[in-house]
Structure prediction request, 414 residues.
Amino acid sequence: MPLFEYIVRNEEGKRLEGTIEANTLNEANENLLKKKYTIVKLSEKEVVFDFLGPFLDRLSLEVEKMKNKIPLTTLVFFTRQLSTMFSAGLTLEKSIFFLSQEEKHKKFKKILGNMDKNIKRGMLLSDTLERNPGVFSNLFISMVRAGEVSGKLSETLEELALYLESVEETQRKVKSAMYYPIFIIGFLVLTLFLTFTFLIPSFSSVYDSLGSELPYYTVLMVSIGEWLQNNIFSVLFLSFISIGSVWLLFLTDTGKLLKDRFLLRVPIFGKIIKDNILSKFSKTFGILVNAGVPVIDTFDLVKKVVDNRVYELAIADSKESIENGLNISQALKNTGEFPSVMIQLLSTGEETGEIDTLALKASEFYTKQVNASVDRLTSIIEPALIILVGGVIGVIIIATYLPIFHFGNAMSNM
Prediction:
């Protein structure tokens, strides 16, 4: 659907800019007039390669994150300390100054030093945070801005600190479940590569001296090993190029959608990933609504927090449905991506006027689901991986030494 850029004034005379989707220019014009806007300018937006804009944005953000990589633990500690100092009556300027002096992380210390200078010049905290997009997320910046506008910055910082602590705890548990299998499988791949490249080819001369016909699997392994040894640099170069290409592909909208859709369908891990997304969604939604952020703006922010393209599209569809008059629970239900438990809780929250409280209850439920799944996975995955590694290594050893055993039997029978 074509995209149109507009400049309008609302009923209070405030100037607004943005984009709107419509089939024709007249349809876009009518949609804006229905909202009682006075149209100043309306024109079709020129789109050159749909994927290029989001791709460059994500690439720029990834580069910024790599340049200013700050551990989540450091951000959690900073937010908690800032909240405590501000609540105790210290000015924002003094709080940032003291934190910058005490900070041990060199990169973050430099960032806090720049923030201190900007605040002394009269800048708002949210504007200062916005200058470091690779460090502070859109959610972090938006919540601080909401706290500044509502005059509840102290309470907002406290909520933000609690939120980041819960995110860190959940991430730690999810990563602890992922690290072990990734390490074991990576070790297995490296072992197989070294075995086929250096060890197995060394048996060729031994096999040649046997002077007998080798088993098929042994011949296959020797052939693979010799080929790897002769083409090792080509294999490493192609692997590097392939990994880099896949990484760049995942920065595009289509590539990210394919990757995230696949991850959600992976047995066991897919459920953990989905529950973690639902926990982040409901937690962020509840905090933002409680902070007084409008629902439409809340959906824009939550979309950037879930970090999954499937749910980003579902949230965008929900936002559009809400703008067209649907209630929140029904809009989410229509996407088919949100479970009935969450829909029911949000529906009850809409009826009672406590949607933020029930959204936070939903977050607690899915956080417990993640923790339970991680605990079960940890108990199952260790013996399963030991069996896998043992089986693969056992097959290689048998295929490697079987001809030697045959030769020994042949000699004993002579």
Remarks:
- Residues 166-414 form one domain.
- The chain has three domains: 3-47, 54-136, 166-414.
- The beta strands are 3-9, 15-21, 38-44.
